[in-house]
Amino acid sequence: MPHMRKATLLCLFSALLFATHALAQTQSQSPLQSQVEQIAAEHHGQVSIYAKDLKTGQTVALKADEPVQTASVIKLAILYEAMEQIRAGKAHWDDKVTLTKENQTGGSGVLGFFDTPTTLTLKDVLSMMVITSDNTATNVAIDKIGLDAVNAEMGRLGLKNTWLYKKVGKPPSGPMPADQKKFGLGKTTAREMGILMKRIVTCRLGDNDAPPTDADLAICGVSLHMLRSQFYRDGVPRYLEPIDSSEEGSAIANKTGALDEVRNDVDAVATKNGLLILSIFTWDNKDQSWTDDNEAYLTTAKIAKAIVGTWAPDGLDVKAFELPK
Fold it and tell me: Which of 32, 73, 88, 318 is nearest to 185 (CA)?
């Protein structure tokens, strides 16, 4: 009997400790985290989020490490590797590239309608790849930069779940990982794509975190201009920057991606309180319409408004994109 009483007391004590720990976790969760989780719970589909205030280090995360379909946000990885090759002298913005019929494909962009062959520059195709998410321009860029080089760079950065599997609208070539059929063009996580966007907008190139050189800043300036000129603004920018920003330049640098059941938006938001990184992915979406009021766009916009409104209540400021020389 004494042994039974002792065992019962131990069980009760363990249960009490577990309940206390769970309560402490609930109480320590920030109101913002709770608000974001509530918005995500009301969405008719899956949502993953990684957001970080680069000034304070605060984060919001939900399923941030779950692998997801990239759709066109994988083009950020192509852009980053292009920046690294330009930095190393292996490529140049004005390098000539050739648009061929073999690389033309449907979906977003206009190069699929051009006569071929047509000569463009690397900067031309990267600009179209980022600003209008041109799929044909992306394929031309992959020919120049190299699919394997992109994946090797993601591995070097420690982004082990970020992969570009193939060209857009083309079948994969060579042996593919077993999960390629599930993810299609590429895969990533909300956290890893947020980390990649941070590297681009803070100009962290090369093998260390040393301050960027003047040459680095010039490269990053070109890429940042592309990202701030983003054509698709139905998600994160919707409630944050509803007016025309084309003259002064947008305070939001972003890359989007969309498939029937997928809407993704990866952003750097320049505010009066500094830079914020928002990486929001939605999938298995019930609303598969291709309209600007698609539920996933609205969910993304609500999450962005909640985060930016909490971390940067004084509003946006393009000066936060300026890096010290």
Answer: 73
